[in-house]
Amino acid sequence: xxxIWSKTTELPERGSLPGDITVDTAVIGGGMAxxxxxxxxxxxxxxxxxxxxxxxxxxxxxxxxxxITSQHGLIYHQLLRRFGEERAQEYARASEEAITEYGALxxxxxxxxxxQPEPAYLxxxxxxxxxxxxxSAARRLGIDAELCEIEGLPISHAQGLRFPxxxxxxxxxxxxxxxxxxxxxxxxxxRRVEGRKVRxxxxxxxxxxxVFATHFPFRxxxxxxxxxxxxxxxxxxxxxxAQELSGMYYxxxxxxxxxxxxxxxxxxxxxxxxTGKSPELSAYGSLRREAESFWPxxxxxSAWSAQxxxxxxxxxxxxxxxxxxPDWYVATGFGKWGMTGSMVAARQISRExxxxxxxxxxxxSPRRFLPAAALPNLGKDLLESGKGLLKEILYLPGKEFxxxxxxxxxxxxxxxxxxxxxxDESGKIYLISVRCPHLGCQLEWNGDEKSWDCPCHGSxxxxxxxxxxxxxxxxxxxxxxxxxxKL
Length: 487
What we know:
This protein is an alpha+beta fold. The protein is 25% helix and 31% strand. It contains nine helices and 25 strands. Strands 3, 4, 5, 6, 11, 12, 13, 14 and 15 form a nine-stranded mixed β-sheet that branches. Strands 1, 2, 7, 8, 9, 10, 16 and 17 form an eight-stranded mixed β-sheet that branches. Strand 13 and strand 14 form a beta hairpin. Helix 2 packs parallel to helix 8, helix 3 (76-83) crosses helix 4 (85-108) and helix 4 (85-108) crosses helix 8 (338-355).
């Protein structure tokens, strides 16, 4: 499944790392956060290179809905309560400045990326008091916000909260233009990071500073990010024949949907769930039914999904990686607001490296205190991880794969061992290990995307056992294909 951004853009290929090199800063990850960080560093006169395992923008950046906003759900009321006014204002100011910076770069570099100022709306039919509280909090923090009636959406009696002067764009066209201005080494997966050495299949990068911009950090220790985040998936349809919209919309009610227009199409998003905990009903099917009820006769031209890292307190981790690694930095946990978060991270990390000073009191600091309100999320994440580990150790299914219908996957018993099995339309069976190579949790079947997903930390694998999403760094060990009738 391919996003509308991937369908309409082909970025030029870049070469791999040619051998050992020495630089000031090595940025691991060629998505929006990594490329922007390297660009901002070079603007400050600091030599920086990007190391990308596959192709520029091939990770989560290509799957965004590409909204650049300071409006991130019901965030500001919570930030004031958890962090106080000074830190909440830092979050608001950094998000607003990110929008401005995107616009300035687009104009200064003459980037043709469909950058367009648009208002952003939260909307609800059930939580109007929460919307009023968010409006008051945003205004208190200096953000221009106003309550309004929602018009133009196919949802009746909705009240909205409007943030003017937000923006939307084509992320891959923007990323492609920026990445041409910095050294990028594609198809250069990083295998290990040891002190100031970044080891790849093509050579070692010796760097004074190292930035982990890999969506989910693949180093478990130090930092313990695997215990401080989980991952969620959400789904998007690109529709023709739907009524075009003015502005961007995000629903705050349970099961709320997101909307935005691009050219003559509408992007309809929703169906969020924890990675590895897929709903019984198809998320794509549910979105298609919603689309048909809104705009009878509309046509799906593209469908795709995104994966987001969610921190315990809802604020990204941006800055020093850990106390024991003073030259490492991290940018992760952007939630569903990766375009804004990427620019915030690039500006903050480049400033910290240039000034040689960590901003320990920043709201974004990975070493910040944990608000008491976030403790239930910590307990929930630890519980899910424990369940995934125990299932891998204790659960052994009783069924073989003879019952498995074409086009479906399940965990089965084969030759006395637990395996993940998928039967294709021709009857061929694909068997894989269901033990995640990251930390050993049991993988679960995702029927919407025909993938094996980890409910603990969000790694994903295709039916052949190949790695799709990190933090795992390798594919699955056991891989076997069986032709039906030749067992």
